């Protein structure tokens, strides 16, 4: 695992590699989890579920844990806060900060805290402080911290005031049902973001929880998720899925390994109906063909939706490389109009933004005056405002 993380650049410093080599990851996962799965670089170990079968606690994939720790630039003697516990990540951080440092890990779930405390003791990391409480306010008296790592998906950030001067905050921030892990560094009255990374985490619980709308289609095989907007009509959306669809093709192609993550951000910038569609790969719902397994963009209305699909456009017989063409499928009474809108967004992205760097992110206090960006938007939250601004 560590060799792979070093090779791909997720681990860059020897002290981080040494910590990952020392902490036994298998102790912190369910007993039935295989060693192969425990040490797979991209494998998430889910440890707790709600009554709908959704994960509420997990041990994040090693690649993401390593990247977040490297982004936080944690070093010996640092005071570090982790929001969202489990034990393993806190043990790795504790190994890096050493006996002169201090690690606090907080979680709202007593089961998670008991488990983390027990496993940290078993592995010799009794110096880690496990705090039970709502992270919205439970750690307000424990700062300041040189680094704060948030390991749950959060819609807002009430922790900026806990950063020590020069500290770094690594935050999986949700905006319009999209999540980016962003490293924020304080500059004056604002936090400037660096290195936004596509990721997914279990959602924050408690006072700071944010609920997106979700509609389950085809008996749960397909789900639509949108942040805000008019209330979704799940029955109407199911009827839309089963009816005839609109089909448009864009002429825009990508190869099998090419990232198109900025496409989602462009649609977020332009369209309040932006959301995601997900198809369970284990289901038999073969007539839904998403262009990406995770975070596939869609435009979603109460009774209709359109989403990004793809088909093979070219295959090189010698190299075996394949290029795929983006298309749009629209469903429901507004499906054709939504398909036209999504089609236009894809063409604009391809023409104007595909080959530029993505937008920058800055986090401001909720009462700050922010000029409207030339290209971008401001997401206003309870404690903060997130400015997403495209380079012009």
From TrEMBL:
Source organism: Nonomuraea cypriaca
Principal localization? Answer: cytoplasm
Q: Where in the cell is it found?
A: Cytoplasm
Q: What class of enzyme is it?
A: transferase
Q: Does the keyword Cytoplasm apply?
A: yes
Per UniProt, the keywords (alphabetical) are: Cytoplasm, Methyltransferase, S-adenosyl-L-methionine, Transferase
Write down the Pfam families for this protein, in alphabetical order: PCMT
For this chain, the family text in UniProt reads: Belongs to the methyltransferase superfamily. L-isoaspartyl/D-aspartyl protein methyltransferase family.
What GO terms describe the biological role, i.e. biological process, of this protein?
A: methylation
Gene3D superfamilies reported for this sequence: Vaccinia Virus protein VP39
UniProt GO cellular component terms: cytoplasm
Q: What is the name listed in the Swiss-Prot or TrEMBL entry for this protein?
A: Protein-L-isoaspartate O-methyltransferase
Q: In Gene Ontology terms, what is one molecular function of this protein?
A: protein-L-isoaspartate (D-aspartate) O-methyltransferase activity
What EC number(s) does the entry state? 2.1.1.77
On whether Transferase is a keyword of this UniProt record, the answer is: yes
